[in-house]
Amino acid sequence: MHDHITPRCLAKTRRGTLCQTSPVKGKKRCRMHGGAKGIGAPKGSTNALKHGFYMKINISNKISSFEAKTHFSQLLQRVKAGERITILKHNSPIAVLTPAFDSEKFNVQEVIENLISFAKNKKLSGISIKDLIEEGRK
Fold first, then answer.
1. For residues 59 and 11, what is the distance between their CA atoms, to the nearest angstrom?
2. 12 near 18, Cβ under 8 Å?
3. Phi/psi of residue 84, nearest 5 degrees
4. Which DSSP string corresponds to the chain?
5. What is d(CA 22, CA 30) in angstroms, rounded to the nearest whole number?
């Protein structure tokens, strides 16, 4: 009989049997069952994160056009609550959903008066407007 027995991987296969492939040098498993470099789950708990549409909403305000179409009423609720959502097509922004401007919130005459009173208290301290314009063109 043989005195030397070749080591085996012995990982459980899909069939429920033990893998009979030789392990990778210096490892206990074959390349198919985690012996090769770079094989296996990522380090840390990244696999524990919830995935899918609802996770994307929590992580980012960017959403694909397909998901926007599918969940449009939910997106409108979020926009109504004040959120700003960017819609992407092939990972490029194509549209932005923002809350509608509510003109009743601002009294236009009051805003104009505030701007005029602000400007009255400010001086250019010896700099002419023409110099500022020229500086802006450089």
1. 37
2. yes
3. -115, 125
4. --S--------B-TTSSBP-SPPPTTSSS-GGGT-STT-SPPSSSGGGS--SHHHHHHH-SEEEHHHHHHTHHHHHHHHHTT--EEEEETTEEEEEE-PPP-GGGS-HHHHHHHHHHHHHT---TT--HHHHHHHHH-
5. 6
**Beta-carbon neighbour count of residue 34 at 10 Å?**
16
Please name each of the domains of the chain with its CATH number.
1-35 (no CATH), 51-116 (3.40.1620.10)
Residue 46 one-letter amino acid:
T
Rounded to whole angstroms, the Cα distance separating 59 from 52 reads 11
Considering only CA atoms, which of 127, 63, 119 is closest in space to residue 91? 63
From first to last of the 138 residues of the chain, give the pLDDT tens digit.
566 688 889 888 888 899 998 888 888 888 888 777 766 666 666 555 555 544 444 446 888 889 899 989 999 988 888 888 899 988 888 999 988 876 566 778 888 888 888 887 777 777 777 888 888 887
- Determine the Cα–Cα distance for residues 65 and 62; give it in Å rounded to an integer: 10
